[in-house]
């Protein structure tokens, strides 16, 4: 049972990835974000997830350096994720994009590097670039984001190294059951973005009832549901009290009935783009 904020899953290459982290999607670059990253680390977070397209890698790096510089944590204890954007996909351009991200973060290596979206005709060459970075020891793990089963099957047909992670939209309205099963069979760790469906589930009566019974918030209940499904989760927050609240999910357990009722909220409903129909 996952019992602590710093508990980790073991990826297929034996790298340990924290089960819980901080997401910074749609958080503006600047001193406030650097402070938020440092606050998260001070409160026990060890995983930080950003992306080139978020435009905030520099502040994430400053927050990390601030925390390391103050002796709050060693760099080796942190798990830093970033992603190659669609416009930079392709072999050479992905390698160049990685250097840019690394420079902005101010780091010597990244713990996890992901292909952000499955850009048709490009993601296989991009994957070759990630394999190169992995073999060179510039990244500790490589993976994908927003890949459906057919994208993964296509990638695996030619890949020399299998993706270790697939980060996808995952919440009680989009339970991704088939993808979860497939990922488990293939040894690919699933990770949730938008686990709280951008706040749209906070007044759901089923979730309110289950949360009340456990003396928890709806957000905490959903995040616990993620973890009990074996899905790594990265809720977004810049407010310290919210980070602490989000992470208070290790002192209770949802029953099998609770889990089944939350699973039953699935409507295959997305708040983000459809990986088969995006145009960016």
- What does the radius of gyration come to? 18 Å
CATH class designation: Alpha Beta
CATH fold naming: TIM Barrel
Q: Please, what is the CATH homologous superfamily?
A: NADP-dependent oxidoreductase domain
Largest sheet: 8 strands, parallel
Report the count of strand segments: 10
Count of the domains: 1
Structural class call reads alpha/beta
Concise overview:
The protein is of the alpha/beta class. It contains 10 helices and 10 strands.
Describe the structure.
By secondary structure, the protein is α/β, with parallel strands linked by helices. It has one domain: NADP-dependent oxidoreductase domain (TIM Barrel). The protein has ten helices and ten strands. The strands form two sheets. It has an eight-stranded parallel beta sheet. The protein has a two-stranded antiparallel sheet with strand order 1-2. It is globular, with a radius of gyration of 18 Å. The active site is at 54 (proton donor). Belongs to the aldo/keto reductase family.
Jot down its keywords:
280 residues; alpha/beta; 10 helices; globular
List the helices and strands and how they pair.
Elements: E1 8-10, E2 16-18, E3 22-23, H1 31-42, E4 47-49, H2 57-69, E5 79-84, H3 91-105, E6 110-115, H4 123-135, E7 139-145, H5 149-158, E8 165-169, H6 177-186, E9 189-193, H7 205-214, H8 218-228, E10 232-233, H9 240-246, H10 256-263
Parallel strand pairs: 3-4, 4-5, 5-6, 6-7, 7-8, 8-9, 9-10
Antiparallel strand pairs: 1-2
Helix pairs in contact: 1-2, 2-3, 3-4, 7-8
Protein name: Aldo/keto reductase
Site (Lowers pKa of active site Tyr): 83
GO molecular function: oxidoreductase activity, acting on the CH-OH group of donors, NAD or NADP as acceptor
């Amino acid at each position: 049972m996952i019992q602590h904020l710093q508990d980790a899953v073991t990826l297929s290459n034996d790298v340990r990835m924290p089960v819980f982290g901080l997401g910074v999607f749609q958080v503006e670059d600047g001193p406030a974000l650097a402070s938020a990253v440092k606050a998260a680390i001070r409160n026990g977070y060890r995983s930080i997830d950003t992306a080139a397209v978020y435009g905030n890698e520099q502040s994430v790096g400053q927050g990390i350096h601030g925390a390391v510089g103050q002796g709050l944590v060693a760099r080796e204890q942190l798990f830093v994720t970033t992603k190659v954007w669609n416009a930079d996909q392709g072999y050479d351009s992905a390698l160049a994009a990685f250097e840019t991200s690394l420079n902005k973060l101010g780091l010597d290596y990244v713990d996890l590097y992901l292909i952000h979206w499955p850009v048709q005709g490009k993601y296989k060459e991009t994957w070759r670039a990630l394999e190169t970075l992995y073999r060179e020891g510039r990244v500790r793990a490589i993976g994908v984001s927003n890949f459906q089963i057919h994208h993964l099957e296509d990638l695996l047909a030619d890949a020399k190294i299998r993706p270790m992670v697939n980060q996808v939209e995952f919440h009680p309205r989009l339970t991704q059951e088939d993808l979860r099963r497939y990922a488990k069979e293939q040894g690919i760790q699933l990770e949730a973005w938008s686990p709280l469906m951008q706040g749209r589930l906070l007044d759901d009566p089923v979730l309110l009832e289950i949360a009340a019974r456990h003396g928890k918030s709806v957000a905490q209940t959903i995040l616990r549901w993620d973890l009990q499904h074996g899905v790594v989760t990265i809720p977004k927050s810049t407010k310290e009290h919210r980070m602490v609240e989000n992470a208070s999910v290790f002192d209770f357990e949802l029953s099998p009935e609770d889990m089944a009722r939350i699973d039953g909220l699935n409507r295959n409903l997305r708040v983000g783009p459809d990986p088969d129909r995006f145009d960016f």
